[in-house]
Amino acid sequence: MDYCYYVPEPEGNIELEEIKDFFVEQRAAMYELELYMWWRIGKIASEMTPKQLKKLAHILRKHLSELKTAIKFYRKYPHWLDFSFDKAYTWSKMKKEYGLAEKRGRVKPSQLIAVIKDRRKAHEEALKSAASDDFIKFLRGRMAEDDDVLKKVGYSEKEKGS
């Protein structure tokens, strides 16, 4: 099934309700197209080896769990027309329904601070033996970036040295 949407140009005076209806209609079409895209990816990916899946995830810049969700979606609905699309249905909801949404934990500020402190020590050691001005500029730039991150997480100057 090929998708090609023609979006007509509005004519004359358009009421706000018409704009809202148009918006809802086009958004639903977009969601359906996105689901179809993932269904097709699932169809193709269902024949791949785990190594090929990892490579595809890297190429698409998507988490592997997203490809696995697409495969699960395809296997549940091997024929696209068997899937009854609802305007409120999105790919995000699909990932939650199948329980394969990636779980990306947040880094705690204390963990981030520890990493930056370790990196700062390594940068300071490298500065002592740096041979070129370009490398020194690079290291100082990285240290300045780290300082900005520390400010964002509320790390004080007094704590930085300890």
Describe what this molecule looks like in 3D:
There is one protein chain. The protein is elongated. The chain has 162 residues and is mainly alpha-helical. It is built from 7 helices and no strands. It starts with 15 loop residues before the first helix and ends with a helix.
What would the keywords be for this entry?
162 residues, 65% helix, 7 helices, mainly alpha
Tell me briefly what this model is.
By secondary structure, this protein is mainly alpha-helical. It has helices at 16-45, 50-60, 64-76, 91-98, 109-128, 133-152, 157-160.
How many strand segments? Answer: 0
Poorly predicted runs are none
Strand content: under 5%
The number of helices is 7
Determine the N-to-C terminus distance: 63 Å
Radius of gyration: 25 Å
Q: What class would the helix/strand composition place it in? A: mainly alpha
- Major sheet: none
| Strand and helix order | HHHHHHH
Mean pLDDT over the full residue set? 80
Rough outline? elongated
Q: Helix amount, in percent? A: 55-70%
Helix/strand layout:
Elements: H1 16-45, H2 50-60, H3 64-76, H4 91-98, H5 109-128, H6 133-152, H7 157-160
Helix pairs in contact: 1-3, 5-6
